[in-house]
Each structure stands twice: as structure tokens, then as C-alpha cells.
Amino acid sequence: MSASSRRLFPTTGLCREVKDDHELVSMNVEFPGDMVFFEGHFPGFPILPGVAQLVPLVLAQIREAWPELDQPIRLSRLKFRQPVFPGATLELRLERRGAQVRFRLAGGARASSEGSLDYPV
Asked: What tens digit of pLDDT does each residue of 35-54 get?
């Protein structure tokens, strides 16, 4: 993991599994209450914006796991199901099958966000 993504989102418990037809990368991600992303979103009820989940977290971790992938060409099945609050610790799970990476950010059985990114072949 790069130093900049560690500063933004502290992670622990990195696990990588290679299967016959896919690869899994998972980690626990902390969301400290003093993160800049919580400022002003929303006053008195801070939640992590969806764009902060996607760009500096999910895309950065995909780049770290698979640096050979270029920029994604499509984002699909994107769902923001539960808010991410300051102080939360969630699991980020990335599953790559060929040129597609699915992600799921969850606390237990409840997903906060999930989606699929397609990359050039």
C-alpha cells in the first residue's frame, strides 16, 4: 500500500488469495473521525461521501493490488447501501476476474457500498 493511501485510510489485516479463475484481496479499513472527507458532509451528522469511498480508497487499493490495470472504462452496479460514520472499521474486499474488479465495503453482513469496475482488456 502506498504511503498516501495509508495516511488517508489506515488498513490492517491484508489478505490475498489466488484461485483458479479469480483473485481476492481484502483488508480492514479504518475511518478516523478527523478525516478531511467528513468535514462539511454533513454538519452535525458526518458521513463519508461516496466519491471518497471510490477514488481515494477503492481505486487506490485496486491500483496497489494490480498495478498493471489501466484506468477503469466502466463502473456498474454501484450501490451505496449504508452510511460510513467517523470511527468505523470496515472490510474492503476486492475480487478480480480478468479485466473486472468487484468491490464490497462492509461491516459484517451489511454492505456500505459495492460495485464493479471494468478495465481495458
From this structure: 999 999 998 999 999 999 99
